[in-house]
Amino acid sequence: MKKILKFALALCIIIFISSCGKDSYFNCFLHLTNSTGYNIYIEKTIDENSVNLTTIAANEVNKYVLGEIDRHMGEDYPPETFIIEKLQNIRIYREINDTIYELPRHYYDNLDDFTLLTDFFMGTYEMYYCLNVTEEMFQ
């Protein structure tokens, strides 16, 4: 029994050490807080025939997946071009009385528009690009 426990411990240590030296991933998310009194919608164009629509209720928070990219040793952040490309396919809007109000792109077309939060677990970095959408942004 002791030999099995020693083997299991050694295996865990080897896996841990080997995972620390390998490249890992950035999982990137758009983290939206809807601070308005209405639902807002995230519309992502997948291809010319497909659109993914996500609803964020009033005063709710949503974590929307932007994508995953390899992280190479020494990189602290995903390439800006990767995130900007993902944001180009996203449209944020709301509908009030059958009228659509689109969030102007200047609120989310540049990485400086976001608060960046990061988390790391088991070789994967989670990058949260946070944006608080307010009533004033739609006016």
Task: Give structural attributes.
alpha+beta; four-stranded mixed β-sheet; four-stranded antiparallel β-sheet; 2 helices; elongated
Shape: elongated
Helix content: 10-25%
**For the largest beta sheet, what order do the strands appear in spatially?**
4-1-8-7
- The percent range for strand residues is over 45%
Number of strands: 8
Helix and strand string, N-terminal first? HEEEEHEEEE
How many helices? The count is: 2
Global mean pLDDT: 83
Instruction: Please state the structural category.
Output: alpha+beta
Largest sheet: 4 strands, mixed
| Contiguous uncertain segments of 5+ residues | none
Radius of gyration: 20 Å
Distance between the termini: 69 Å
Would you write up a description of this structure?
This protein has 139 residues and is an alpha+beta fold. Helices cover 21% and strands 48% of the residues. It has two helices and eight strands; from the N terminus they run αββββαββββ. The protein has helices at 2-21, 80-88, and strands at 24-35, 40-47, 50-56, 61-71, 90-96, 99-102, 115-121, 124-134. Strands 4-1-8-7 form a four-stranded mixed beta sheet, covered by helices on one side. It has a four-stranded antiparallel beta sheet with strand order 3-2-5-6. A hairpin with a 2-residue loop joins β7 and β8. The longest helix is centred in the N-terminal third of the chain and has 20 residues, at 2-21. The N and C termini lie far apart (69 Å). The model has no long low-confidence stretch (mean pLDDT 83).
